[in-house]
């Protein structure tokens, strides 16, 4: 799988409508590794970068291509290849129960209701969620909701999975559960996280600071550099 960002940048008008705010400085990247992590402070541009990868945000300049498909001109085709998970699973669980939510994901591939329900149950069983199939999503724990959201995304078999801080709302047990599940996926995975241990499991690490990619390379070395950067920023703030 190949994701190419060619001189891509994201800029928006400031709230007063006068000046322009840069959410992500111009960058050129080719992402081919199976496991890629993105780290940085809140507001640094991590989420903006992730949203570029499946067309949730269009670049203000430059272009983004996923396996040769332009995210602006061919957005629907891109989104069929790129599954996206938000930080809060409730922001994407739109149906009352896990079973109905997975069925919704399968409506294109399984137009007949009986076949769709059977396929949805198989998906939930794969993730160990079959016992929760008809529970309200609001009665589930944070970890269960995250797994349901993941099962809905993966039900359509995307080639690439993009996750925006997937462990932020999880306790340690569910974090381990999710991490192990992600490790076993065949999809290319690109994730943003504040979990530096999780970031170190990747093959490639991007560090974003103030809308710029300031590091691109080995995860362990990158996390070390990020810690130094964060410490320097903290000292400046105290001063």
From TrEMBL:
EC class of the enzyme, as a word: hydrolase
MF terms (GO), sorted A to Z: ATP binding; ATP hydrolysis activity; ATPase-coupled transmembrane transporter activity
Protein name: Biotin transport system ATP-binding protein
SMART domains: AAA
E.C. no: 3.6.3.-
One Pfam family here: ABC_tran
Species, as recorded: Psychromicrobium silvestre
Membership in a protein family: Belongs to the ABC transporter superfamily.
Chain ranges of the ABC transporter domain: 5-235
One GO CC term on file: ATP-binding cassette (ABC) transporter complex
Protein keywords: ATP-binding, Hydrolase, Nucleotide-binding, Transport
């Amino acid at each position: 799988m190949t994701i190419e960002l060619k001189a891509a940048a994201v800029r928006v008008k400031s709230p007063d409508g006068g000046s322009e705010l840069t959410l992500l400085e111009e960058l050129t990247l080719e992402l081919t590794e199976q496991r890629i992590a993105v780290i940085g402070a809140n507001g640094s541009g991590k989420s903006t970068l992730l949203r570029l990868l499946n067309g949730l945000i269009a670049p203000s300049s430059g272009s983004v291509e996923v396996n040769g498909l332009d995210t602006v001109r061919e957005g629907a085709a891109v989104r069929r290849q790129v599954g996206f998970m938000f930080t809060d699973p409730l922001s994407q669980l739109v149906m009352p129960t896990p079973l109905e939510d997975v069925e919704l994901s399968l409506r294109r591939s399984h137009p007949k209701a009986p076949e769709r329900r059977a396929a949805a149950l198989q998906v939930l069983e794969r993730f160990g969620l079959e016992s929760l199939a008809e529970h309200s999503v609001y009665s589930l724990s944070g970890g269960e909701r995250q797994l349901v959201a993941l099962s809905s995304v993966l039900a359509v078999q995307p080639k690439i999975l993009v996750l925006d801080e997937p462990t932020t709302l999880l306790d340690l047990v569910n974090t381990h559960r999710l991490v192990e599940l992600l490790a076993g996926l065949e999809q290319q995975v690109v994730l943003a996280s504040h979990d530096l241990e999780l970031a170190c499991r990747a093959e490639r690490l991007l560090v974003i600071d103030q809308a710029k990619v300031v590091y691109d390379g080995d995860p362990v070395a990158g996390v070390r550099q990020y810690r130094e950067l964060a410490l320097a920023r903290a000292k400046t703030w105290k001063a």
